[in-house]
Design brief:
Four copies of one chain form a homotetramer. Chain A is α+β, with helices and mostly antiparallel strands. The first copy, chain A, has two domains: 150 residues; 239 residues, paralog of FGE (formylglycine-generating enzyme), CATH 3.90.1580. The first copy, chain A, is 32% helix and 12% strand. Chain A is built from eleven helices and twelve strands. In chain A, the strands form four sheets. A four-stranded mixed beta sheet of chain A has the order 10-9-8-11. In chain A, helix 1 packs parallel to helix 6. Chain A is globular and about 65 Å long. Chains in contact: A-B, A-C, B-D, C-D. At the A-C interface, strand 3, helix 8 and helix 9 of A face strand 3, helix 8 and helix 9 of C.
């Protein structure tokens, strides 16, 4: 995702988007954000552990600002803002809307407090829901409401991602939730290789249903013969890489990654800590053992790339990934809140690659670029995605903290190559 | 004060320090800290606006840690800590006690939260008060309890000082308290010059009653003939300096100050902001007009020094200041909470310098050094003061946020020459 | 190019590489490096203006180190080094060879001095030439000699590039050579649009003759319908962009570029300076007027991209560029030394895009990635190119300081998006 | 010394300053600067190893600029500068003269080169000498010529000081001169304690003969009973401190020094390096053994202070030092060029403290402040000293690279507490 992480925009595409359906989705999605924040104290919700992360409280306000600015303000002339200072305070990166409060100082905005932001949410929700119920919005505004819900789902993932980073700084290593199920080690199926589709292939979103603008236009591409690994690289395998000197052999690394590895003294994935009895990892349930069968997570593009080179393989191209990921996304019977770690419950060995959705984001070797023919829309929402298309890499799939509804095969997530605070891992590929 | 701002230590000196009197003081001082924090939300109490400042919540915990570590732990073998992680989390800078949580990250410690810290205070207070009431403490421990109260008073000033800095970052410029009296402009008495004592003079604390170790030993010093200004430099006078190019004429500045002035683009005291109708200033009551008759405040040593050079005068030596400041500190009938800006109520023109106590801290030209014969005490409390005696300047007097009980003529406050976030101003001196 | 700028490697490919032909090339290429340094004083040759640049003296030594390390050491066991400390001092980035002297401190290596480095060159040249004349090298070593010459040509371009940056820091703005021809403004042919090849096309080096490893393997790719501009964007056109607010309209920029533009206060190409009579530019002949008909130069990828967006066009893909660039590279009758600014002498309007070779490097929108099937070779020379394939963009063509022999249509130059100190400009493209 | 290190000014004081005598001194002092630079290559003379240091070439030009700007320009209206750009290029810090070329980039000024600067020197020397010989200067200008010579002597010390720092960065560790005498270990006389003068004492320069303005006014001060160590702390003793954990025990350090020690990983004096056979040190003759009997050198104020605390002593006050240092400075028969390391040849045990002059600068505990009644002169030369009087400490004595003529008992050198690149050591003191 973009630095600001709210960087996906939809071009209105048609479809049976009814106000009634949207109202139900609106209630559900908005409520889920508040549920995610429920275990947090006002202090937890207000701190910012680094410039790339934001306080939970800020996420809650910014997603609301999105609806107020792009829907309510757009829906009636003379709309009176809940608080005029919010226009700047909770604008993430939309230059067309105006100035922005400096990102690295979001944690210093102690006011408005959590309670007042929840009140803000309530007020805006009332405004949106009343107009949805009375069917007052134009189709274009309905599209923006839908976009706002997908935008909010992106921030739901960020709330958990940023929070894990914050809690990890506390030497007490407090868990976000202490009622989560104990992880279990399971048998690891042997990794097998599967040939992917080749020749001229069509990729990108077909335009039926919602997508972000960067998922299109659908277009043809030429795919070389290749194989994809059946499953993700596991913690067990990643530890073999570590034991084989993975973090001390420059020949395995891109030059830029090696410099960073030295400078920041990387020796393991971000939240791992060496203990007498072996490696432990910090997660939303607190510190716990590294589970060998789980996919490795919280690694940068550089680490993923080095692992692949060590394994005599390479990272997949995003097109290779997309072609192998046949929808629909498999069902599971877990509530989002019970997921919160890469458990791979729904992903079983089959005839092709599995573990594609909902475990960890998968780094690809594809720089994040526009698809041929892509043009960002006009106005502020044109800033959603396109302006972040430099020096980032595409990740595919979706992680255990990605809302289930939000996962699809054409989805293009993106982060700079050094980023490690997401649930990001890798799947191997190789030339045929 | 030291970076950590709890940097004064007492050498036990005797005196009628009864447990009963101490228990009353203890209740009063500890209660006042909580009263200061009462207008704050948990979010307000938890944020840290720069590495030199600390969250209110941290101040509340650290002052409690002081009593737990140096009194309760010292009073009984096998004492069981309230929470063993606090030993590190709330240790400011005592290497003898052990490791310290990194200072610039105090604002990221969302847990323990404010409520839990108030509980911590309650528990430790019970422990101290019970033992005081049962008269269980040795004279040495009684001395440390007394030191702990003065230590807490220093942190009370820091709570307000750090908070003002934090609130100033919020573009809404929220006031700490909105019920404070409106400031009034008063007539400014003309500045007059008063000869000070000269020749061999005795300075430093005489050793009767409490003082910090850096106030002694009392000793003789040779004082040259000089004059001290009757009162502090006012906002009106400081604006004349500004209008006369004070911030753009390098010949008025020390080289180091000039470089900083350029680099940080100083044009006025820290919290001043230019508006159409003239300068405004941010204070604990929010934004308001600059009151011409009030002493200028929130200036660095470099600005004070440049002003003095512009005025064809100089900053006083700390000995000159001390000799002119006859005790007792004049009474006023204000509650501390009603003071909170430099109002000069108690300081009326008389036969000598006035406005010496309780308006703003006065920069002197004296580097903060040990008095002849000074030796820090043994053990952890020996770290209170001595180790900060480099690259800082002495300030004298006391400000409107200094607890009244805490002000005395021998008191030596100290800050680096660039510091501006205290209520710091100046009084002129010149050679006779 | 890579940070180290010597990042292209050849896989030995066969061919009629005779020792005799190589000896002649060796004399010519090596001599040209010394000729480039001839106008410089020892002081000029020794300074380093930023971490990304290197002193001329260092370039002269490093290219020699390349021959000593990879050819002479490889050619005879027990080879005795000219100076064993050079192994570290002049190793750019080859981890397989051993440690490297810290890059940002190359300008502090006052010893060996220029004279001693010229002596080093002489000694190594003798060693290489003697063995070539006696035909003692294996085919593999002959290949490495050839690679070393191309490597040296890359450094010849860097010598001038880094030197311009250094001289620009001197307020006297001294020219590198004062005997260069006065530039003349010429008529600017109107920009026209030319359709490129589309569908499945073959790109990459065919493998006959020398190329760097990153130019292959030759492979097929799918090209969408598109147009390429007939010529480069001129200084005149770029000034229109500037006058139209190009540097102050965030909607034209990638987010990362906009942040940088603000932070570094970009207002024009790197070496431009506003004077009363209009813009001037610093070049190898010193300060002079901006010539309207010359191609704009010394702009970053971000500026090129913003210009293209402003012009309602886009940057070309590297494949689009390569397909349009038919060889052979047109001849001109200029000595390299007389070129030294983008004069476009050899590039005349014709039936297709022109100005493709030898004016300025052209930014493409293609991130620098491996071609399908690319694998770096084994050993130290495998570090030449592959490890720099992250967060850089491909530039195509060649500039006025690129040795003529070094220019070809498959050549892939690369720099980070912020780099501006090369002769880099742009050509527009758009979708058909 | 000041950051710029040319920070001492004289108030004209009268005296028998004849043009004839000055001309002889001028020839001698100016010639010595060139002799110091003689062993250096143009490359050596041009590099700058850190912002606090300057290239030799720059020192040679700046001292010449001083004579041109303050003497020649002052002596005749319409004086035509040697090169008008030099006014800015070689202005160190005189705001009254105009802008200054940025200090950290002095090493990037490859032009004018060394040869041209020597030509500049020659031309200015002719101008000065001709006017001296014709006795054309006013008494005030004669005073400035004399000041300029002392200024140049300060820069002679800096040339060697900055050069050592530069050469130390080269892994070859080249010596400045290879013809220096081998150092010999001598017997170390036991350290004895000597009572100093006490009560009211007069210090500061009496005003007969040359001094810098900061050495006066002479004034009375009150001195407490104390002892001074007979000699400097030796390398042997300093190694005992190291072996006793001197660099790992925070209780020995000022807080600021301890933080720096951790951050920069100090384990020994600046140029020491641990080898198998014990510690070695880098000096002007290259790497060599640490000589146990030599005074320790290249330590910061913080290290000196920590050593003194470890030794249960303290650093002297500058007044204590000055009172013990009876002139005349003892003679020796060494040429300056043969000194170049702290050999203590002229300093023999006697009835009081010895080793006071010409070994290493001695850190005192006195912050660098104005003496009572000090006022800088008017105009540019008033910037020489006064503006550096903050956050620096006074050093007394003079080192082995201080020109002999330049040493006197009232001389006040000054550096920030962290500085280590001078020949700086310490002598112990204690309270009586």
């Amino acid at each position: 995702m973009a630095l600001e992480s709210d960087s996906k925009r939809t071009v209105p595409r048609a479809g049976a988007l009814t106000a009634e359906k949207l109202a139900a989705d609106f209630r559900s999605v908005r409520g889920r954000s508040e549920a995610l924040a429920a275990p947090l104290s006002p202090e937890d919700s207000s701190a910012q552990s680094m410039a790339d992360a934001s306080p939970t409280k800020w996420h809650l306000a910014h997603t609301t600002w999105f609806f107020e600015t792009f829907v309510l303000e757009g829906s009636e002339p003379g709309y009176r803002a809940f608080d005029s200072s919010y226009r700047t305070l909770f604008n993430s990166y939309y230059n067309s809307v105006g100035d922005q409060y400096p990102r690295p100082q979001r944690g210093l905005l102690t006011r408005p407090g959590l309670a007042q932001i929840l009140e803000y949410r309530e007020r805006i929700d009332e405004g949106i829901l009343r107009r949805l119920e009375e069917d007052l919005f134009s189709p274009e505004l309905l599209n923006i409401v839908e976009l706002g819900l997908h935008h909010e789902e992106q921030h739901q993932e960020l709330i958990l991602t940023d929070l894990l980073h914050l809690l990890a700084i506390n030497p007490q290593r407090p868990g976000y939730r202490l009622d989560l199920a104990e992880p279990e080690t399971s048998e690891l199926a042997p990794l097998t290789w599967h040939p992917g589709a080749e020749g001229i292939q069509s990729i990108g979103h077909p335009g039926i249903g919602f997508c972000f603008d960067n998922e299109g236009p659908q277009h043809e591409t030429l795919v070389a013969p290749h194989f994809l690994a059946s499953r993700l690289v596991s913690n067990l395998e990643y530890q073999e890489f570590m034991q084989d000197g993975g973090y001390s052999r420059p020949e395995l690394w891109l030059a830029e990654g090696w410099a960073l590895c030295q400078e920041e003294n990387w020796r393991a994935p971000l939240y791992w800590q060496e203990a007498e009895a072996g490696w432990k990892a910090f997660g939303l349930a607190g510190m716990g053992p590294v589970i060998p069968s789980e996919p490795v997570s919280h690694i940068s593009f550089f680490e993923a790339d080095a692992y692949a080179r060590w394994a005599d393989a390479r990272l997949p191209l995003e097109t290779e990934w997309e072609l192998s990921a046949k929808e629909p996304v498999p069902e599971d019977n877990l509530a989002d809140a019970d997921r919160l770690r890469p458990q791979s419950l729904n992903s079983q060995p089959g005839s092709g690659p599995y573990q594609l959705f909902g475990d960890v984001w998968e780094w690809t070797q594809s720089p994040y670029q526009a698809y041929p023919g892509y043009r960002p829309g006009p106005g502020a929402l044109g800033e959603y995605n396109g302006k972040f298309m430099s020096n980032q890499y595409v990740l595919r799939g979706g992680s255990c903290v990605t809302p289930r509804r939000h996962i699809r095969s054409t989805y293009r997530n993106f982060f700079p190559a050094h980023a490690r605070w997401q649930w990001s891992g890798l799947r191997l590929a190789k030339d045929a």
